Amino acid sequence: MSDNQPPMGPDPKLMMELVTEKMPFGKYAGRLLCDLPVHYLEWFQREGFPKGRLGMQLATLYEIKINGLGEILNKLRRLKGN
Question: Which of 26, 13, 25 is nearest to 57 (CA)?
C-alpha cells in the first residue's frame, strides 16, 4: 500500500457521530441517530438521503443496521458513556 492511498475502513469521526448526534428534523427529531428505526432509514434509502454530512451519516447507519452490525454502535455508545 502506498502512502497516498486513503486508509481502509470507516471514518472514526463519522462512526462516533452516529452515537452522539441527534436527528435535526422530522418525526424523529431530537433522537440520537443510532436510535433511528430501520424502517425510517429504509424510507430514506428509497426516497433519497439528505445531501451533505447528514446524508452520509444516515447512509452509513442504514448499512450498519441492515447488515446486522448494530453491536458496533453498542460498543461506541459504551465508549462514549451513552
Answer: 13
**Exposure on the CB side of residue 12, measured as CA atoms within 13 A:** 3
pTM confidence score: 0.84
* Overall average pLDDT of the 74-78 stretch: 90
Task: Name the residue ranges covered by the structural domains of the chain.
Answer: 12-80
Measured distance CA(56)–CA(75) in Å, rounded: 20
Cell of 32: 440520537
Closest CA to 18 of 71, 57, 69, 72: 57
Query: 61 burial class (0-12, 13-18, 19+ CB within 10 angstroms)?
Result: buried
C-alpha 77/C-alpha 3 separation (Å) is 32
Bridge partners (DSSP) listed for residue 22: 32
pLDDT tens per residue across span 16-37:
999 999 999 999 999 999 999 9
